[in-house]
Amino acid sequence: MIALSVNVNKVALIRNSREGNYPSVVDYAATCISAGADGITVHPRPDQRHIRPSDVFELAELCRSQSTTQGSPLEFNIEGNPFAEPLKEYPGLLKLVEQTRPQQCTLVPDSSEQLTSDHGFDLRTAADKLKPLIAALQALNVRVSLFMDPDKRQLDLARELGVERIELYTGPYAAAADDVALLHNYFDAARHASNIGLGVNAGHDLNLHNLGQFSDAPGLLEVSIGHALIVDAIEIGLTPAVKAYKALLTAHGN
Asked: Which of 110, 216, 232 is nearest to 171 (CA)?
């Protein structure tokens, strides 16, 4: 079954538009878990535009205390740029991971100037810098995933770095609507990743309209969805939204 990890950044973004702690990121995450989410994802950034370091600690504690509706351990996934410098209360991605020990850390090459993540790593230039960071994360017994474009040559380089998983950046797929050739390119990349021993995750702009066909990607293990799910929750409610995504994954899962 393909796991659903709900990214709660947008809840934090709404919370940060006012003083106080309303809405509570932890309460919303707990609702997602009760509705059937298999994990919780956060993407803290140095400017703390949404998720704050304090949220990371509280969500780590929540996830440790929970299990999925199937009785499996609940996954906590921290995403972020491992090269981003500490800023004010933000101690840096590796320090947050060291202090909270999530099950998975997804490394993403986003800069502070980007509105959101919009490309995968180019490992021809980033591999040497990533290698010691990956080793440090794995020494903490944290599974490492790299945010990647569907490029088989790049996936080979990811395998050489020894990471356990890759997360396919699905923004171009979501933007292209019904581009069958592009979908096949993603499927080909997913199949290749599985064949060389990489677990396959996916995320970015997946929604109830485009997730179904993408869920047939070979070897897909997990999707991370935040923006679209929270938008759907405005219309139909958070619990029904989580259940709708889970139903799609169940129906199409490989």
From this structure: 110
Domain architecture of the chain: domains with CATH:
3-247 (3.20.20.70)
- Residue 149 tokens, joined: 């474009």
Residue pLDDT, tens place only, 56-112: 999 999 999 987 766 677 999 999 999 998 899 999 999 999 999 999 999 999 766
Residue with structure tokens 């923006």? 227
204 classed as catalytic: yes
Give dist(CA 105, CA 114) in Å, integer.
Answer: 20
| φ, ψ of residue 8 in degrees (nearest 5) | -100, 20
Tell the burial category of 55 from Cβ atoms under 10 Å away from its Cβ (0-12, 13-18, 19+): buried
Q: Tell me 233's DSSP state.
A: H
Residues 166-183: tens digit of each pLDDT: 999 999 999 997 788 999
φ and ψ at residue 95, rounded to 5 degrees: -65, -40
Give the H or E element holding residue 104.
Answer: strand 104-107
Residue ranges of alpha helices (H) inside the chain are 9-15, 25-34, 53-64, 93-100, 123-139, 152-161, 171-175, 180-195, 211-214, 227-236, 238-252
Chain centroid offset of residue 84 CA = 18
- Structure-block tokens of residue 8: 């709660």
Retrieve residue 121's tokens: 């790593």
Task: Exactly one of 50, 75, 192, 204 is catalytic; name it.
Answer: 204
Active-site residue flag, 164: no
Q: Which residue has the tokens 């995320």?
A: 203
Please say if 252 is a catalytic residue. Answer: no
Spot the catalytic one: 43, 50, 75, 222: 43
Q: Given 75, 79, 167, 222, which residue is catalytic? A: 79
